[in-house]
Amino acid sequence: MTITITTAPCCWGVDDITNLNLPDWRQVLDEAAAAGYGGLELGPCGYMPLDAGTVSAELRRRDLYVVAGTIFDNLVDPANRKGLEHQTRQICAVIAALPKPPLAPGQRFPAPYLTVMDWGHEARDYAAGHSDRAARLDDAAWRGMVANIRAIARIARDHGVRAVIHPHAGGHIEFADEIARITRDISAAEAGLCLDTGHTFYAGMDPVAVLEAYWDRLDYIHFKDIDAARYSAVMARRIRFFDACAEGVMCPIGDGCIDYPAIKALLNRRGYAGFITVEQERDPLNAGGSLADLRKSRRYLETVGFARPALEATR
């Protein structure tokens, strides 16, 4: 089993590219490398330049690679189809041309991936983590979302990129019934899953049980940790997901309540090979703490057995 730990720009508060407080993307590359991560995600569309030559040069300067791109947008609205397809072509054209991530023996699909997340619905945002409050899509709207995801996945595949559906707090694929439904309606041949320990916990599920239940669909994993006291506090309020993150509900891995020794035992038993991306959403105004927190998360993961592998990379 060979696992490589990477990170993502959301650890610096990069989720909304219209936010004027985002750090420069080259600072994110500098600090990802300084924290000991060999690779990272591209971040939301437009954060890093959509120019493979520019990004490649900066990655090579720091001995980094990009493990995934991201679609983080309204997947439900049929009128958004053209925009989603345009983003997908832009992102996949860039990530497919960047320095290649390593390929581990036993890894199901080579990176880079395209993580596909639904976002942009106010009512669901305020219901994040509350399955009983969250209105589900009707059948017609669900079919429209499925059609949009299939279109994204087809374009990604044409670029040699594996699309992975990412259940996300505050989106229309968040809770247990929605994960079950999307995996019934979109086959493994069309798209895999990127399961996130933090989002599954935030949505009231056991991350170990969810990883086990969807093992046959799992191509890529995100690691987060959750501060139990802050989680309890935000669950008692009406609050948007990213506002909860700005209040520190996400914490360095090992400081929270998610059972990472149990997750490591599951990955060992199942023989997971490939990538795990460490994330810790925050307000970008607090990005001054990102480097220290990422180092802390990486050190903790080493204590529970996630060593720094020297992969025989296929680049």
From TrEMBL:
Can you say what this protein is called? TIM barrel protein
Q: Which residue numbers delimit the Xylose isomerase-like TIM barrel domain?
A: 29-301
* Cited InterPro entries: IolE/XylAMocC-like, Xyl_isomerase-like_sf, Xyl_isomerase-like_TIM-brl
Fetch the Gene3D superfamilies from UniProt: Divalent-metal-dependent TIM barrel enzymes (3.20.20.150)
Its source organism is Paracoccus benzoatiresistens
Superkingdom of origin? Bacteria
For this protein, the record's SUPFAM superfamilies field holds:
Xylose isomerase-like
Q: Which Pfam families match?
A: AP_endonuc_2 (PF01261)
